[in-house]
């Protein structure tokens, strides 16, 4: 299914919810694609410190917060979302690193 209406063109809660579901599916698909790159970068990491990459982690969180704010979203909420996402991916990278 694809988005065929703008939010203001939707005519019911069900219509709006269906469109939200489509968008959420796309977001999850993009997170999955992002994870493919995360798994691939482990080839270039040699230890736990390089996986965590604290400076990069903080930069990503900060910039994603700025991007959210530029689009009228709450900066802090999206910084928290990305902090959780990055922690999940770090755990997955550590598993991969352990198998190298």
Q: How much helicity do the residues have?
A: over 70%
Number of helices: 4
CATH top level?
A: Mainly Alpha
- In the predicted model, the low-confidence regions spanning at least 5 consecutive residues are none
Which fold name corresponds to the CATH topology? Chorismate Mutase Domain, subunit A
Spatial shape:
elongated
SS-derived structural category: mainly alpha
User: How many strand segments?
Assistant: 0
CATH architecture: Up-down Bundle
Distance between the termini: 40 Å
CATH superfamily: Chorismate mutase
Describe how the helices and strands are arranged.
Blueprint: H1 13-41, H2 48-52, H3 54-70, H4 75-98
Short description:
Helix content is 75%, strand content 0%.
